[in-house]
């Protein structure tokens, strides 16, 4: 369903957001019968609590929403989304209690609460509509919500309908929507075009591997986004156990996230030159699958010893990152569901990122806080470089020992980029339903990047 604000109407039901320490003052301004109703129902403005107040005809006159204490709110985000999903059908407006970034977040939370993945089932009942609050960038919030919905849809779609060819079609549709240019290199053409690692990882699949290359904009600094597009990961000959393979439709979450971010950038008409690179493959098993101890030569000329075929994401990214660097962009950002080690370090809700620039790190951290899209900087710890040097080749794709797995993967990728570079090791999955985030695919880090772009690129 389209995630948009409702058309203004004089009949919109007011929603009063009430902080716990402002309960008495807010209730004191209500009509006497509503004050009695609030007391009778035991409304205490607890976080997420809501109360509908009737008019003389039994219709909803207003809604009170509890916003709790700062300590309670700090334990989550998108709190208004939980309430929006529970309200009766109708059109609502926020009548007070929020301003600034809190109002922006609440409006986005309401829209995102309307997301539902309905491709394979009866569509969910639409949530109540919200009129865009005064003082917010309504169109910007709608575009952000739609970019997030695109990311979620791509991740949630199973590989039977989201293989490399389907991911290409989705990218072509996005390019057509925004009048962007796209070039696709498929199958054996990857070899002749100089993308040997992408070809090697994807050649065992029934759907040929491919590199998607989309460009948009002709003015301003150049931003190149690189997204890991492993549409399914069996682990290859180092096959995953069944329990670990269950969520591998989400292994293209990096690609889904950069495509959602690209929609936001293009939809907002930002003054920059955008390039999006997605190596789209399926890591399958067949007679021509790559093997442990194989030594592969990358586009950059660096050789890689394969010590685990399940560490394939960094291989396809290596060729794409090398290409990204060849036209000297102002900034390269890669996003990938790359390592389980990142989840162990920060859990499923935080997007860890790597950069050698303290200024970029500060800009991302500040932006993430402003838009409720949590990120955390992990180190490009150079002393660990020896861990990715196997001796027999330039690089090891799966260092032994199991330590610093996310860091060593990031260091591996850094070997292929000389331009200013930021890498995100995201999860791309909401393991349990939360306000405005149903269980399933989810965007991570994209809104923080979007908010930080003026500082990152000096726009």
Summarize the structure in words.
- It is built from 16 helices and 19 strands.
- It has two domains: 13-128, Leucine Aminopeptidase, subunit E, domain 1 (3-Layer(aba) Sandwich); 142-457, Zn peptidases (Aminopeptidase).
- Strands 6, 7, 8, 9, 10, 13, 14, 15 and 17 form a nine-stranded mixed beta sheet that branches.
- The two termini are 33 Å apart.
- Helix content is 34%, strand content 20%.
- It has 459 residues and is an alpha/beta fold.
- A hairpin with a 5-residue loop joins strand 2 and strand 3.
- Belongs to the peptidase M17 family.
- This is M17 family metallopeptidase.
Instruction: Write out the CATH superfamily name of the largest domain.
Output: Zn peptidases
CATH level 1 class label of the largest domain:
Alpha Beta
CATH topology of the largest domain: Aminopeptidase
Count of structural domains: 2
Q: Low-confidence parts lasting 5 or more residues at pLDDT below 50?
A: none
Q: State the helix count.
A: 16
Radius of gyration, CA atoms, in whole angstroms = 24 Å
* Percent helix: 25-40%
- Under the CATH scheme, the architecture of the largest domain is 3-Layer(aba) Sandwich
Proportion in β-strands: 15-25%
